[in-house]
Every structure is written in C-alpha cells, then in structure tokens.
Amino acid sequence: MGINKHAQILDLKIYNSLFPLINQPPKHLAYIEWFTPFPLTPDSRHGMYKITCFIHSGERVASIIPVSNIACSVHLI
C-alpha cells in the first residue's frame, strides 16, 4: 500500500451537533487537529513516515468538520 501524497493525518474527536437546527447544519461534527503532510520518502533508519503536529504561530492547527468528510482512519505510533 502506497502513501497518497495528498493525504493528511489528524487527531479526531467526535461531537454531537454544536448548532441548533437552522439551515440544516451537519448533525455530527468532528474536532480535528492537523499533522504535517507525509514526506516524499520514509525515514531511512526505520522505513516509516515521520509526521508531527501542524503548528502555526506556536499553536496546534485544528478544525471542526462534518464527520461525513472523513475518508478513513489510521493508527499512529
């Protein structure tokens, strides 16, 4: 299985809807924390791809998105 160069890793926490039923917002939302994109090649020492938390202005980057936008999950070591 290859690594999709457009894939991104995130830390997922699922929440029930945060909004009242106005304009039909998504029912289930997820709070996600972003990680850096995959490097082009795996680390030469262990053959694994090294990623880190995505930091902007000293803060971890996070978003709230509809659960339906999540493609799949991964296990980070």
Outline of this structure?
The protein is mainly β and 77 residues long. It has strands at residues 10-16, 28-34, 55-56, 59-60, 62-66.
Descriptive notes:
By secondary structure, this protein is an all-beta fold. 0% of the residues lie in helices and 30% in strands. It has strands spanning 10-16, 28-34, 55-56, 59-60, 62-66. The strands form 2 sheets. A 3-stranded antiparallel beta sheet has the order 1-2-5, with no helix packed on it. Strand 3 and strand 4 (59-60) form a beta hairpin. The radius of gyration is 15 Å and the shape is elongated.
Sequence-ordered SSE layout with sheet pairings:
Blueprint: E1 10-16, E2 28-34, E3 55-56, E4 59-60, E5 62-66
Antiparallel strand pairs: 1-2, 2-5, 3-4
**Total count of helical runs of at least 4 residues:** 0
Distance between the termini: 18 Å
| Strand and helix order | EEEEE
Structural class of the secondary elements? mainly beta
Oligomer: single chain
Strand numbers in spatial order across the main sheet? 1-2-5
Shape, principal axes of CA atoms: elongated
Helix content: under 10%
Task: Please count the beta strands (DSSP E, at least 2 residues each).
Answer: 5
The portion of residues forming beta strands comes to: 25-35%
Radius of gyration of CA atoms, rounded to a whole number: 15 Å
Summarize model confidence as the mean pLDDT: 79
Which stretches of 5+ consecutive residues score pLDDT under 50? Answer: none
Largest sheet: 3 strands, antiparallel
